[in-house]
Amino acid sequence: MPVVDFKKYCAMLDKAQKENYAYPAVNITTTDTVNAAIEGFAKAKSDGIIQVSTGGGAHASGNLKDMVLGSISLADHCHRVAAEYDINIALHTDHCQPGKVDSFLKPLIAETARRRAAGQPNLFNSHMLDASELPLKENMKLSVELLKLCQENDIILEVEAGVVGGEEDGVDNENTPAEKLYTSPEDMVEVYEALSQVKGAKYMFAATFGNVHGVYKPGNVKLTPIILKNGQDAVIAKHGKDAEFWLVFHGGSGSTEAELRETLEYGVVKMNIDTDTQYAFTRPVVEHMMHNYEGVLKIEGEVGNKKVYDPRSWLKKARDNMADRIAKACDDLRSTGKTMG
Questions:
Q1: Confidence band (pLDDT; 50, 70, 90) for 341?
Q2: Structural domain boundaries of the chain?
Q3: Which CATH class is domain 6-332?
Q4: Are strands 171-173 and 165-168 parallel, antiparallel or unpaired?
Q5: Which of 16, 150, 196, 221 is the 20 to 30 Å CA partner of 65?
Q6: What global pTM score does this model have?
Q7: CA 336, CA 181: separation in Å to the nearest integer?
């Protein structure tokens, strides 16, 4: 199927929230990781979200290090390949800090606007603004500005308040004070009241509850999913059931199945998965090289073995293993077999 449109994406998120499951959101950096993501969702008969970060976009453009060009290239590839499968794929961009809004988010939104004017579908279905480094009022001021721009182009905006610990994509929050890793109910109400000013706009919210990017021991910080329930309850109590957030879970690598499942009860509809899929992609490559050492290296003047140093031989193994890991994530988040068709 083609990459989803705005209405189908909203329907996907509504269905996940109503039925207490979530979509894995898989970071991609190359056409092989795009293919692995789509193949993993197809294997699980699950709809899914594929996303690219500023660093992933830069990598995809090679030595140009152009995060916008690379993101457009990956998105175009995804549009073409996803159309050949019978599952729904939504395209998203991951963490964008305030300093990169003008050089990353706005150019990508402008590209979608250009395409829409030409009668073409959106390039991306949703974007993430991560302005958690700012005081909440400043965060929301920038979020509202971008939400208006997204609304004009049938784009969902993801925002974050609170800080996800650890390190990802060059952003280091490993020494963040513990209290910064939790979003309070008062903060969640303030986020809703700010974003709901943009009538008819759609948004996701990455509230933090001790999350840590990567696989780290967070010390005294504990993953506390009940924070999500407390925040949702506070928002609903003040503004009604329709105010319930589509929540996003960042930094979930290494979480227990019980912790993952608990978040689904509180409105999590999207969970980012990157660290685990990175490892899943790399692990079989290492095994291939170690088992075919003499073939991949022309040792002592020998000719090696073209069948094993051809990149296609080991990239296929990497792709297949990453797809398997994504299918497992679908099982963990209960999206397996629930494609909307």
A1: confident
A2: 6-332
A3: alpha beta
A4: antiparallel
A5: 150
A6: 0.92
A7: 30
